[in-house]
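Narrative summary of target 7.
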Amino acid sequence: MLLIHRRWQTLAILLAPGLWSAGCVDDEDVLLDETGESGALSKSSDGSGGDEEGSSLGPDGDEAAPPFLATDRVAEPEFVPLEAIVKFRTATPIDPRASFAAVAGAEAVGPELHLVRFEADRSAGVAAADPIAATRAWIDELRAHPDVEFAHPNWLFKPSLTPNDPRYVDQWNYPQINLPQAWDLTTGVSTVRIAILDSGRTGHEDLADRWVPGVEYDALGEDGDASSSLQQIWNHGVAVASIAGGKSNNSKHTAGVCWGCQLLNVNVSRNNGKASLDAAIRGIYWAVDNGARVINMSFEDPHNCMDLETQALPLAVKYAIDRNVVVVAAAGNAGKDAYDTSPASCPNVIAVAATDSDEGLAAYSNHGSVALAAPGGGAPFVNGTIVSDGLNIDCDNDVYSQFGQSTAGVVVNWTTYQHKKQCTRYLAGTSFAAPHVAGVIGLMLSRNPKLTPAQVRNILQSTAQPACGGKCGAGLLDARAAVEQAASLPPGGDPKPSAKFTVQCSGLQCTFNASNSTDNEGIVAYDWILPDEQFKSGKIVSAYMPGYHGAKAARLRVTDTRGQSTLIQNNFSFAQPVVSPSAGQYHSLTRPDNRFHLFNTSDDALVLTWYTFDLQGEPVWYSSGPGHRLGARWSQTLYETTWNNQVAESKIVGEVSLDFSSSSDVWFSWLLNGKRGGERYTRQFGGLGRSGVWYVPTELGWGISVQESGQGLEGVVSFPQGGKPAWVRSAMVTPSSNLQNVPLKYYSGKGLCPSCGGTTAAEEHPHWSGWMNLQIASGDSTNGLASVEIVYQVIYLRWRRLQQQIAILTKP
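Modeled conformation, tokenized:
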């Protein structure tokens, strides 16, 4: 098979034993697949061949079929079929290599190296049927010969992964940090979430499917809509997010660093582009609680983090670090030591300085007390102020975007203010250096999700390239080296881990078990994304399902000691239990001041009143229509009652559903004013005695919802406030047929609206007060007497109803 089959006999004679000494085999760098989950540049041992000397001949003198290579070649890298690179032993005075080259067709490729071409012997049929196996077989025989120092395939090396995004050619910043070579190892995985605490999302197509769906937080408004406001003139967060994890290889705009990771959208920016401390703190807590592994903060304040002026911030950062979340911050653009900049100076935060295109410290960049540097681009620094007037590449003419002529910055995605154009531009600043590091950390965690914040920092600093004359911490970020060191590279042929899991449910409580997942060297991490985008870690995890309706799917990613991972998704279903729901007061487990009262009607239908808060944190209530369950599920239309000229009017604002896991444990979901949501609620008490909705037959639109259970009774008064529905709540009192002067409290719940992500307890409003008298004889009564007074003391607004006849509307 050397050129023609007969030439192998000639080669065997030329390489007869005794001409050179015994051989050895070198390992070779080989490029494996470039997929985001397991691609790696690694060492692959080729084996040492057999024990035979000389040619391998059959018993009749014919050449024997070439032996197969002993090792498993399942994950074989690519090479040129029927070719090999050969190095012979030290030449003797009569150098046989010239004869070899002439007879066997070897071609010199260097002073000591030859390219040998084989040719298939169609009569044998082996090479024609499987040229890869034939090539391997002849290489094994070459290696076994004492006159060959080494022989190996003529490998085909893939280029470092290059995205096809049109502006990638302008992203000089990525080659500077060896990012394309890091992409050969991984482009990130969806179980790694990078939280972007910034100005919120826009509709930019390079980010549209990078955000975790349905999971975001406006830390200013304390609600679940973190889109950039219509008044936001500087969409800084779009640029930051596009670097950390913007969509790549989609033939549009720019490439992001960790394009396989997912982004968590947290808006902390006011309309003037500045982030407030309270929003930053709330954003950190929310991001940690919603599965972030990395938090990026590209904003600055001229105080040391440990000053008395900012001492609340390090507590939030500590919360993140203690829960294994890495925190990255821009070093600041004041051209001074970052020691006096927050959040960069907070303990355990990775503070990032900026380099220009020449790998020097950018003139504006803070330095000194930083962990390392990353590309931020060049920009003039005049009188202590950065002048970032980056060139408009393909945006519309927007004065608020402050376009200029500079191309010294980095290319980023952008959304203009006036016409909301989704486009690209140049910008410079440490704001854009930080997400390079955040994205690389995402790549590191994609290969080794068990890394701690301290280990991440150590790897980043120990692998950094010398830069900035020692003024930027450990030096310039080296993405390839950092990602490579995050997990030892797998040897050639090392299989990925096998991911398997089972699901067992009791009602809506499900257990996900990955114990049957296997790997030859062991699994170090199990990461789950469960229905409703719940993020969990561990071999066995439990989670509460968001209702019975709709298809359910769970994703599991298992990672081995070599940083190889397998991601699978399985659909599953579970049966509804037989339940008899208990009437009473239910509350949210994570936001206890969100409650609903559940009652039965005379024909055994269910009806509820929902007591929650609006976007401003003011109390508001909604009511459902009555309806019967279908198994463990109940759904009804949702109404809001308003008042016009003292006349109550009800309008449809959505729908509500209850999926019962047990008689007192339920998934409560809603569609309210176009927004969907859901939470787990559990029954607190009530449903006995005088429990029920009591109303005034002569004046519709207000009433008292009573819950009684054992030795406790509580009432909630629904009343009109400025034409809108509001409520006040009594303290828990001992049940009596004649309750007098029971105090009523008005609560404010900023961040507790149905679509909000806040978990802080509601607060009693200091300027509201009230009382109620309630006379209901017993649990069998269907009527009674009530009087109510509610006062807003600032301007003395009073809502008062003297003693009136009340009647039961719904009752357990």
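The two ends are 90 Å apart (CA to CA).
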